[in-house]
Amino acid sequence: MQVTGKVGLFGAAGAAGQCIATALSAAGRDYRVVGRSRKALEAAFGHDPRAEIVTWNPDDATSIAAAAAGLQTVIYLVGVPYDQFAAHPPLVEKTLAGVTAAGVERFILIGTVYPYGRAHGNPITENHPREPHTFKGKMRLAQENLVLAAHGRHGLSTLVLRLPDFYGPGIERSLLNGVFEGAAHDKRAQMIGPVDVPHEFIYLPDIGPVVEKLTRAPEAYGRWWHLAGAGTITQREVARQAYALAGREPRLTVAGKTMLRVLGLFNPLMRELVEMNYLMTEPVVLDDTALSTLIGPLGKTSYEDGIRQSFAAAREAASAGAATGRTSAGPA
């Protein structure tokens, strides 16, 4: 693969950005992390001498271009609140204009299965039609289309890497995080159901080496690719394994679509989950044969190992929290 120049992670402070940064650093590559909050970036990357920390205002064209100056590749990880998905297309449009002005050569969007809508049969390849029936899927599709339309313009090459739902150590925004925290704290796990349907999850640290390779693979650009998990598993089985590691039987509180509607009357986030609940009853499972053919074997952490590492991180956090609580309480 071609040796490439400096990489910038836009929207770097989240879990995916940290996983990709770890892979870049392990490969001996300097990289730039870009976000709104210097404090958050320093907390996540301040320990790594290979990380250059830059703040930006994604609504300001000059700020975007300055954040992208000197980069060969931009990896776009910018998130928005779940109830503000309409912001996705204009945000990426502004960023594409800024990185193009800065002379960036490659642009990678980390995408989702939302633009596909309902699967016509699993697993699906990249030839599956993109027919979203949800608002969030339509906004993600519009975002992707802007990225792909920019390919070949003003020296910019673009691609989309599509991921399933993710999990991993300390990843709070995972559907499975409540399982690991519940097992570690000996509490009920809060879950979104149904929990007995086979579902695909990717162990998020596995994406880093793949993205690092894609920054060095010019032949990959101009299309979208799938990166799948290690097969499928039910959420109930994840809970069984996690609680077994704690020496306990699973205790679950499961919110299905009806309960989400009720909870949504009081909690805006729960309301936003309703339209995407079809993915729990009709999961989309990805086939990543094309990507492995292009860049070689894709490292996949087994569910058994991923659950073990995720539970260990939750148990360590629980122990640290308990120790802090004892320390702060002072003498009786």
UniProtKB/TrEMBL annotation:
It comes from Paraburkholderia lacunae. Transmembrane segments: none annotated. PANTHER family: NAD(P)-BINDING DOMAIN-CONTAINING PROTEIN-RELATED, PROTEIN YEEZ. InterPro entries: Epimerase_deHydtase, NAD(P)-bd_dom_sf, NAD(P)-dependent_oxidoreduct. Residues 10-211 form the NAD-dependent epimerase/dehydratase domain. It comes from the Bacteria. The lineage of its organism: Bacteria, Pseudomonadati, Pseudomonadota, Betaproteobacteria, Burkholderiales. Pfam families: Epimerase. This is Epimerase. GO terms for molecular function: aldehyde dehydrogenase (NAD+) activity. GO terms for cellular component: cytoplasm.
